[in-house]
Specification:
three-stranded antiparallel β-sheet, alpha+beta, 15 helices, four-stranded antiparallel β-sheet, about 625 residues
Length: about 625
């Protein structure tokens, strides 16, 4: 799809030749594994065949071509007081730096860059009214954590609400809460900045976690995500923030624990499966921060290459479109050229894993930009198309269509206007290093996104670094893009968005190619009809789908659906495809006119032949579902 330019309100439309969504290429289901590792699985832990190409150490020349003038060449965010670029690191004692000394200095620089992302840096002005709000939010989180912290000598937990020795979520949540204290301790203007007692609390909490919950000598349990991504990420961030307040030997002990759980930016889970989509970016980021703490420059090379999946010949590159010509088949998880984003194999997830991918990737690109580990894959330019096609048409004045948010619609902190914050923050981090025309377009787009959302003020909820960048854009003379008017279809995930002056409609379907809904980790238990032709109407009531809309709406009466109201069990029929191929539509080029249809084949109801959901057991043992009359 052609790039949109600033002020252009009618983007290119879906091809008129499409009378129905074409099925994607049939995936190769031959198991392909990393050498001496088990078959890969979906992100929720179920086994799956056909995950990635056999890995090779060969790095193709295309993936080492320099992306001149684009994302790789500079720091990615005009943060307050940015650190010097690698090329401007001063000589030591008047002598040119040796390569090893320069590498060490660059690693120190990267640590400072990451700290700046976490706190906004030393130039954050606590007297600035907007920044004062952000700092107060940091202080409230720290105060809450300090109030309930158990400091007793023989404590069996750090916080009483996170005391389980069998729920891995409590491991990750403990580390996140410790990180909240660390952010407050390191944030300029915080009431807890540099507080000795708080530093003692943080050090004591980390020691307790390493002794009792998180070390190579202790068992892992429950969800791998909490050990390798959620907990590891918060742990590493805390070590960055308290770098000089934790003895080097102790810090090394802690980074060894992180490296034990998350050693390879290409793999994850206890049985070392191939990481894909957002999970690959999360894993790579954990490895990068651990490497910075240890001065492990070889690992940073691995992080850079993992984004392109050079070991797997690009099969699971997070930068390339999954339907790019000649691409080696991987899992199919990630972005597609029509703007679709799939995770967990066939779940539309732009507003969940997709937005987290772009938010985390933009931070990682900022971290590595302008150094010898700069990402130079030419597919990196696709990130601009993600913004144009995978996010912009699915955003409605600060809201994000629930049809592409997966099970996150069941999370109070992730509903409706909240996901767009991550997208805006990620886009802000991309602007400074973008080519001039792209930077202008993204600037106009961000200005539109922020100003048109009068329900949730972005400046009141974002972090200090993003706040400063956003205010710079809002104060600029650059005009906002203007309200979007477009008919946009997503053939590869069975969704459509129709924007008109005054209203927007979102359509949600599924077919033989796409799953109906996701319900894992005991979430989204009543999502049965989210893809049964659901029609979401957006008008000037910007809060219509907020205020716990999804937990309280009648799940048997979702707008636009025609369903059997028979009572269904929690999570009934999730991760199912339809027997129908015909789902999709057509659009008129140059006009905002389109048609969309769905051959509805529901599971076990009387609307379409009483189809029955039955397990289809394949040789990898995964429980798949097929439809049989």
């Amino acid at each position: 799809m052609p790039n949109r330019t600033p002020g252009e309100r009618t983007p290119d439309l879906t091809s008129p030749q499409l009378t129905s969504n074409p099925p994607p290429p049939t995936p190769d289901l031959t198991p392909r594994r990393h050498t001496s590792t088990p078959a890969a699985r979906t992100s929720d832990g179920t086994s799956r065949e056909g995950t990635a190409a056999t890995r090779t150490s060969e790095i193709t020349p295309r993936r080492r071509a320099v992306l001149g003038g684009a994302l790789g060449g500079a720091a990615l965010l005009a943060l307050p007081g940015p650190p010097a670029a690698a090329s401007t690191i001063p000589a030591v004692a008047g002598s040119p730096l040796t390569s090893s000394a320069r590498a060490a200095s660059t690693v120190d620089e990267l640590r400072l860059r990451w700290e700046m992302l976490l706190t906004g840096g030393p130039s954050v002005d606590p007297t600035d009214p907007d920044l004062a709000v952000a700092i107060a939010r940091v202080d409230r989180a720290a105060q809450s954590a300090l109030t309930t912290l158990d400091r007793s000598a023989n404590r069996t937990f750090i916080w009483p609400d996170l005391a389980s020795p069998t729920l891995s979520n409590h491991v990750a949540s403990n580390f996140r809460r410790i990180k909240q204290l660390a952010v407050a301790w390191a944030t300029n203007g915080s009431a807890y900045q540099g507080n000795t007692s708080v530093a003692d609390d943080i050090r004591g909490a980390l020691e307790w976690m390493h002794t009792n919950r998180y070390s190579p000598t202790l068992p892992r349990y429950d969800n791998d995500y909490d050990w390798e991504i959620g907990g590891a990420s918060a742990f590493a961030d805390t070590l960055v923030l308290l770098y000089d307040a934790i003895p080097a030997a102790v810090r090394t002990t802690y980074t060894q624990a992180i490296n034990y759980y998350t050693p390879d930016p290409n793999l994850w889970r206890a049985d070392r499966q191939i990481a894909t989509g957002a999970n690959r970016v999360w894993i790579a980021t954990v490895v990068a921060i651990r490497a910075i703490l240890d001065g492990d420059t070889a690992a940073l090379v691995g992080v850079r290459d993992a984004l392109s999946d050079t070991e797997g010949a690009g099969a699971n590159s997070v930068l390339a479109f999954n339907d790019a010509p000649g691409r080696v088949d991987g899992t199919g998880e990630g972005f597609y050229s029509d703007g679709s984003f799939l995770q967990h194999y066939k779940h539309p997830y732009n507003g969940g894993y997709g937005k987290e991918l772009v938010g985390t990737l933009s931070s990682l690109l900022y971290l590595l930009g302008g150094t010898e580990w700069t990402v130079t894959d030419p597919d990196l330019e696709n990130i601009y198309h993600w913004i144009d096609d995978a996010f912009d048409p699915l955003m409605v004045r600060g809201d994000l269509m629930g049809s592409v948010c997966g099970r996150e619609i069941a999370r109070p902190s992730k509903q409706n206007h909240a996901p767009t914050q991550t997208i805006i923050e990620g886009t802000l981090r991309l602007i400074p290093a973008a080519p001039a025309a792209r930077a202008a377009q993204l600037t106009a787009l961000v200005k539109q996104w922020i100003t048109e959302d009068t329900f949730r003020d972005f400046l009141k909820v974002t972090d200090p670094a993003s706040l400063v960048a956003a205010r710079t854009i809002l104060a600029s003379s650059a005009p906002a893009r203007g309200a979007l008017v477009v008919h946009k279809q997503y053939p590869l995930m069975d969704k459509a968005a129709h924007h008109r002056p005054g209203f927007t409609i979102g359509l949600s379907a599924y077919s033989s190619r796409i799953y109906n809904y996701e319900s894992i980790q005991n979430e989204n238990l009543h999502g049965w009809h989210l893809s049964d032709g659901m029609v979401l109407l957006y008008d000037d009531d910007l809060g219509h789908y907020s205020g716990d809309y999804w937990p309280t709406v009648d799940p048997y009466r979702l707008p636009g659906t025609t369903v059997d109201t028979r009572r269904l069990a929690d999570s009934y029929g999730f991760r199912s495809t339809s027997a129908a191929d015909w789902v999709g539509g057509a659009a008129v080029p140059g006009r905002t006119i389109g048609a969309y249809g769905m051959d509805l084949r529901r599971v076990r109801d009387e609307l379409a032949g009483a189809e029955e959901l039955v397990p289809d057991r394949r040789r990898d043992g995964v429980r798949r579902f097929g439809h049989h009359r």
